[in-house]
Amino acid sequence: MSEEPDSTAVRTALWRGLHTLVDDPPHVLDDAIGVEIAGVDETWRARPDMDPARTRANRASIVARARAVEDTVIASGAGQYVILGAGLDTFAQRHKGPVRVFEIDASATQAWKRARLVQLGLLDSTRLHLVPVDFEAGESWLDKAVEAGLDPAVPTVVSMLGVTMYLTPEAISTTLRQSASLAAGSIMVFSYSRPIEMAPPEVRPILEGAAKGAAASGHPWLSLLTPDQAAGLARQAGFADVEVVTSTELHERYFAHRHDGLSPVGGEDLVIATAGGDHISPE
Ligand SMILES: C[S@@+](CC[C@H](N)C(=O)[O-])C[C@H]1O[C@@H](n2cnc3c(N)ncnc32)[C@H](O)[C@@H]1O
To answer: Which tens digits make up the pLDDT trace of 107-145?
Structure first.
């Protein structure tokens, strides 16, 4: 396999898997398949970025955002789900219902994932459509997804988790605008990271380390957003209804009854935005 996957996508998949292995049940998300797709050797748990104690906040944030999106998809009743910057997302493998899934990602990571899914016998091409798009290259994810079979006239859920920080503000706005042009009732959920100085003091060193690690691995954080900026981008893109769900609210929703102290507070927030069906040019 010549292509290499995006290292940040592998890391978040491993954190989801780590959650099922080291955190107490009930798990916020049960995703062991991502580790299988990652195809890492048995030493993966000894990686410094997989230290169970040091990475608690990170994996809590990653499973919280994934669970919130999956709950949104299921509650919406939508028949189409688009995952922007899908990485090693495994919704399509874990949810066998009628939802058609369109995964959008950069071509190298996606080609690598396709090969892994084929190798593992996990690629169901009747439900899962893999669409290569580079959000920074002026390509329209919407046009490419429609070419692959997406119906833009029916309500759709679109997610973009753990991606905005790696994009320029212009690329974020373009991807949001294309999402806002979908049928009325379509829902977009995206996560964003706040500027480090907004985080609780005890979380700041973790974020500073993560920012340095991201830059060193060739994936610098380009866009950190305040809640107002994130909501503002969604409104400017044309969404009719925009709600911010903070990491504290995600804690209340999914972690408040845990006894192991696992919490996503200080990690990524979400914006949940609903399209109103006004004519929005996706350009
Ligand atoms: C941190 S990973 C998140 C993956 C997945 N959403 C998750 O939550 O595990 C970031 C993903 O965004 C994708 N990505 C980053 N920049 C991109 C771009 N310019 N165009 C398309 N995909 C991009 C990467 O390939 C990677 O899969």
So the answer is: 999 999 999 999 999 999 999 999 999 999 999 999 999
Mean pLDDT of the region 215-240: 95
C-alpha 147 to ligand 1 mean position (Å): 21
User: Taking CA 98 as the corner, what is the angle to CA 92 and CA 102, rounded to the nearest 5 degrees?
Assistant: 45
Helix (H), strand (E) at residue 229: helix 227-237
Report which ligand 1 atom has the smallest distance to the Cα of 136: 19
pLDDT number for residue 200: 80
Contact 19, 28 (CB under 8 A): yes
Is the shortest distance between the CB of 38 and ligand 1 below 6 Å? no
Nearest atom in ligand 1 to the alpha carbon of residue 161 is 6
Architecture of domain 7-274: 3-Layer(aba) Sandwich (3.40)
Q: Where in the chain are the domains? A: 7-274
Across the chain, how many H-helices and E-strands are there?
10, 7
Interaxial angle between packed helices 169-180 and 227-237, expressed in degrees from 0 to 180 and rounded to the nearest 10: 50
The verdict on the CB of residue 70 being under 6 Å from ligand 1 is: no
Whether the predicted pLDDT of 178 surpasses 60: yes
The answer to whether residue 1 scores a pLDDT higher than 80 is no
Mean pLDDT, the chain, integer: 95
Phi/psi for 222 (5° steps) reads -105, -30
Q: Is the CB of 166 under 6 A from ligand 1?
A: yes
Q: Listing from the earlier edge strand, what are the strands of the sheet with 157-160?
A: 128-132, 100-105, 80-84, 157-160, 187-192, 269-274, 241-245
